[in-house]
Amino acid sequence: xxRRTLKLPSWLPIDLYILALIGTVVLAALLPASxxxxxxxxxxxxxxxxxxxxxxxxxxxxxxxxxxLRHWRLHLTVLICTFVAFPLLGMASRGLVPYVLTxxxxxxxxxxxxxxxxxxxxxxxxxxxxxxxxxxxCAGSFSSIAGIFLTPLLAAxxxxxxxxxxxxxxxxxxxxxxxxxxIAGQLTRRWISGFxxxxxxxLGLVDRGSILLVVYTAFSEGMVAGVWHQVTPAxxxxxxxxxxxxxxxxxxxxxxxxxxxxxxxxxRIAIQFAGSKKSLAAGLPMASVLxxxxxxxxxxxxxxxxxxxxxxxAVIAKRxxxxxxxxxxxxxDRDQDREPGRSRSRGRAPADRLPSAAGxx
Length: 361
Description:
Elements lengths: L2 H4 L9 H15 L5 H24 L2 H6 L4 H21 L10 H12 L5 H9 L4 H26 L9 H31 L1 H26 L7 H28 L4 H11 L4 H12 L3 H27 L5 H11 L2 H7 L15
């Protein structure tokens, strides 16, 4: 069999890291950490979360983020989609309890709606669809920064007791495990940024390995506590259906809403991909801090949504990349067909079809 026949379709991306996450869940189900091993895994998971957020802070260029503020309308639109529209839909999911979702799955579904947007996949899909890539970079960065502060606060406000008993102790854990390492990374960035660039691949493995450790610890605690007995195949199917509706609503809202607000095609693409996606890398460590022993059920909706958004957005980006005549090109073709004296006055593109504002970022 040739290699070519073994390749998956380009429009159906099965992320190898998702397969690794699934393998980690299976390992936790078969060999959960308990007793002394659970204490060791918990301590290692706590250190891994702190390391993750230290690296997040050290990698983020403050100067680039501040430069991106000049395109503030686009970034504000993405933030509203991420931290206002998504949470409102998450709150509406309470009407699905108990007939469609269990209270624990609904809490995870709501937590999914509070997580910040992605950076890497938003940039990749925006580039594939020929959108405003610099805007996607800045929008994802701003969302990640805001999520470090907003996600725990929104979780405390909206989840209440369902978020593992959110308390002053939980708030202290968030400060120590998330905010302090992030700020430390920002403060030390000038001295270690070169090291991070030189060892980018190795540190990428550290990132993913740390998240796998967090997942193993969370699912081990769930197995020991017996929380997985609450998830039936019917509930899992209902969860997938609810997430499919959520993703469809946000993809439609970001695309149509951006068009109504007068953004051009390139900006609309960046808004759609950055405003409709959720970060697995940021959400998993936060869930381990916020939910404690219930983190396994809390992260299940996020893990499923993450793979779903990759598959759907890949299809959308692929189709947009194959557009033979984007909005801007259509207007240029019309201008060439008109008389020279009339093309400048009648062939001018409307406000939402102006060239991409990538240069302003």
